[in-house]
Design brief:
Layout (H helix, E strand, L loop, with lengths): L2 E8 L6 E9 L3 E11 L2 E5 L2 E3 L5 E3 L6 H26 L1
Antiparallel strand pairs: 1-2, 2-3, 3-4, 5-6
Keywords: Cell cycle, Cell division, Septation
Function: Could be involved in septation.
Pfam family, one: SpoVG
Amino acid sequence: MIITDVRVRKVAKEGKMKAVVSITIDDEFVVHDIKVIEGEKGLFIAMPSRKASDGEYKDIAHPINSATREKIQKIILEKYEAVAEEETAAEE
C-alpha cells in the first residue's frame, strides 16, 4: 500500500481539531474525513467515524493493524506540519 496523495484542509476555528485530511491509496482509493487532533501527548489522527444509535462513535474505515495506522499517521502528520510551515512563512 502506497499513499499517493494527502490533502490537508486546516480548520480555522479554535479547538482540538486542527485539520481534516483526505488520502489517496495507490492512486485508486480515497479516504476522506480523517481528522488531525491535538491531544495531551501531541498530534494524532482519528479515522472517519459515524455516531451509532447508542451514542458511540464507530470508525467507518480504519487500518487493520497498528503498523499500518502508524504509517498513515506519520505521512499525514508530516504533510500537516509542512502545510502549517508554508502558511507561517506566507504570513511573514
